[in-house]
Amino acid sequence: MSGISDYSEVQGERLRSMCVPRSSVVRECLAAIEAGGQEICLVVDEAEQVVGLLTDGDVRRALLAGADLDGTSAEDIMRDTFHWVSDGGNHRANALDAMRAHGLQQVPVLDEAGRLVGLHVIEEFLEATPLPNAAVILAGGRGERLRPLTQHVPKPMLRVAGRPILERLILGLVGHGVRRVYLSVRYKKEVIKDYFGDGAGHGCRIEYLEEEQPLGTGGPLALVPPQEHPLILLNGDLVGEFHFRALLEQHVAQKNAITMGVGLHAYEVPYGVVEVEDGRIRSITEKPRQSWWVNYGVYALSPEVVQLVPSNRHYPATDLVDACIARGWRVGAFELDGEWHDVGRPHDLAVATGQELPER
């Protein structure tokens, strides 16, 4: 199973065309910049590790200072100190942070070995084609299992790498063209409202769905105004990279009532598993590993599905899935194959942040 990716980050052959060895001359750097079409080339060593970069402006300034097209090497004029993001976690939001803070147009994505695996460019954040679809983010929970961290802020406002989880989700939606966002709020709702306002500062329009009582993961849908296009629904405590546009494209292409974002969850039994029959051992399997498709808490919903949600009562989103299956409506699966964390417990938050939690 695989999703259809519309990810605008530069990848693949185009990315490789932008790389040059450190021994390359300026003329070859210019050719790589032209081939990539992003006004940048990346300088790599023999192990394909990125050791520097050159923008179109860097090359022009070097030529004005006397560099020679065929006699000056990339290593002589490259920037060996530059901003980059790791390919782990939500590197899209991290790249946007770097661009905003330092006025950058491009930010490389490197793996653990320092090799180039992607390139974020400013256009993907500023010029993503707007979609007619809206999104609902569930942000009303109390986060009881995360106390005392949630004593004064709602769980979706806990920070991961310096940014609230909820803000990461909103920026991810906006980056994929979703410009209308409904936030379902209840616990400490003023913290969320004060931070986001009407959404203008985040490139979208935010409206608030106020839960008078806990409505679960599906109940807030009854508060959403009627929609003409499929709607995205997601939990407000998710940390990861989600391809929302591709989710919607697959949803429409397959004519699904619901498309659920799923991922493989593996578990390794830490012992040898023995098959016993009538007191005799038939076989032993050492530390078997099994995997299951699990619900990641991200959905695309057709308008007619939203109308099934009852008003003013607690209603799980999984009940809505069951209701569609019972009617014979198509429920599809979309693989979310990037890093994903459901930050519901202290351990999950520690994994997502890479930090130790404070003692209770």
Describe the protein in words.
The structure is a single chain. By secondary structure, this protein is an alpha/beta fold. It has helices at 12-17, 26-36, 56-64, 74-77, 91-102, 123-126, 165-175, 189-196, 244-253, 303-306, 317-326, 346-353; strands at residues 19-21, 40-44, 50-55, 85-86, 106-110, 116-121, 131-139, 159-160, 163-164, 178-185, 205-210, 231-235, 238-240, 258-268, 272-277, 280-286, 289-301, 331-335, 340-342. The strands form 6 sheets. It has a 7-stranded mixed beta sheet with strand order 11-10-7-12-17-14-18. The longest helix is centred in the N-terminal third of the chain and has 12 residues, at 91-102. The chain is globular, with a radius of gyration of 24 Å. The two termini are 42 Å apart. Residues 1-8 and 345-360 have low confidence and may be disordered.
